[in-house]
């Protein structure tokens, strides 16, 4: 986000006297430039000019020599806080005593002194302190301590007025050094939306401030007086229009030479200070000037060492296998879509100088010996720059501006302005010829805007004058037609203005968002949450009430997760959606199962000191439709046809909402009653039943082997579909020991995952009300011996059918296997509640129901009542 020093902004627009960062930020926010941060003055308190009256060098036992300095800081501040025994009785010393370890100043020098009560950058407060046998009553400051950076002339860095950081500055003891050094600057950091790249410059922000307040605005681009420079100069060839490219990569390339620059010339203090306040690090005069002009005008510049460049400079696309070592000392393999700046060292267009609009290469970078330079100011295609910047993970200040669109009229003015500053502070001469290759893009076709469109779109009335004034204020050329419509030609620095709605947005913005009334819409009666929304909330609430904590995980996974969860080769969950532009290279896939991202969350929580885990998440999962499922891209000029929309929908991944939970370790805190029971696989099934009951559905469990679960302690969750067939909607149980070890989970950790949408769909849309029973209940227990593969749900269903309407509730409370039962057999024990709505059940009725139950189980699954 750009940082705007107020003193710099004030050069281009009129700020009120004493304007604060908060006031300027408030004004900018009214026209859509949101405040990101405010930075006050870096130095507060009494920072003054002092004259060194006396300097005594005192060697110390540790081998270090310190200076005991007497400094005159003006009559108002000359209060001696040193030990009273130090001055001679009756002697007055109009000075302060200060201990200083630097040695780059002498008696008589003017220095900068921070007195007690001063707060320096980094919230460093100055106070009088006893040290080296003296009371040091303040501090003599260096450039680093004041946030100005190291002094270029002195290793020790103490600021001496008249040289280094303070070249050309002077003063008298007691003068305010904060104002003298420009340390009172306040800075506003703003958030710029992608469509308003012109605000990445002082020029653009100053223009917007004038729109917000009505203050005068002086365009710094028009103040650059371009001389009559003949064409010629460095030869440039634009060969970026390869047959396969969508756009022209470079439409204009300006090159201007400056020769005889003093390599030792230093960046002026005021410029270095402004760059620092704007968030950039001063490097050298040439580099700093290009950065300064970029921040001021918005046109990125690049300086080449002219002695290292072999003409002609060629702008072209990258070839297969080409590589470049950029200024950050990283060697990058280039893509055929990358636009390159090359020269002819070793053959025409052979050596790569940089990635256009992103970053230069190290082979021709400006160094401490550079005296002849070539300044580049070009107009590059925003899409080309944006793709290269993202492809190489190489964001730069230049790419931020190019990918948002740069004014194509700026290159000559920016190049010449930079050349003037370099010659002013570093000497040399500007070449008498300039290269201006390519063309200025023609103005866009005028946009037709009916006068009533702004009112129609925004909903409030705008006068004819407000519409016209707003458009002219942002630089548009406005011509009114005989039919009451306006032909509006946007300015070159506003490439975002392409349709009439863009113009309406500008009118609403400049007239003021505050003039648009806030009308709270009234919700229509009789509507609330949908059935699915209520069901999802009920399922969440059921798990939360069971003691689990809801979490959120990002839906991105790496390919290694499938092997970690022990998926087989043909497992459908391996058909994950691959992202073209993933946030992280190690996670290029969308999750196909919620446990793929929930288990890492469990591991992270345990790694942060948790001793147990009980978490759940409701989220989406995605499955690919296959290699050929590629969505068409309909044209934006008109509404897509129904066939195109169907094709887009058909190519979308298969997506559903899932509910998953992971439980392991102790199910609660220890107490005086002893250790609590740990979470187990039965709890996973119980949680699934709770979620199903919350949405009004019923599930049955069947044992099955399914990764990543334990082969003997897991089962699939089924619901009964409308056609009578049961459908698998998920799985639950104990995790496989290898998975538990892989994620560092507690032993016997369990989990569940179910398709929540399918579960909700299986629930009846209308829930029948159950009358409150008035007659007593009768209880019966049954234990049936059945084959090992007979599901408990089948036995339960047979019991309900056999007993009929008298069966109020059937509950499985025990499963037993052993040699007493026989190999391949198991015993299922059920508790049954019997109740009649007509009267109290008699012993005969209960006995008859019991016999019907036994017969029904025998007929349905071959179950035998256990003796």
From TrEMBL:
InterPro entries xrefs: aa-tRNA-synth_II/BPL/LPL, B3/B4_tRNA-bd, DNA-bd_dom_put_sf, Fdx_antiC-bd, Fdx_antiC-bd_sf, NA-bd_OB-fold, Phe-tRNA-ligase_IIc_bsu, Phe-tRNA-ligase_IIc_bsu_bact
GO molecular function, one term: ATP binding
Top-level taxon of the source organism: Bacteria
EC number, UniProt record: 6.1.1.20
Native species: Brachybacterium avium
Catalyses which reaction(s): tRNA(Phe) + L-phenylalanine + ATP = L-phenylalanyl-tRNA(Phe) + AMP + diphosphate + H(+)
Domain TRNA-binding: 41-172
An annotated GO cellular component: phenylalanine-tRNA ligase complex
Name this polypeptide is given: Phenylalanine--tRNA ligase beta subunit
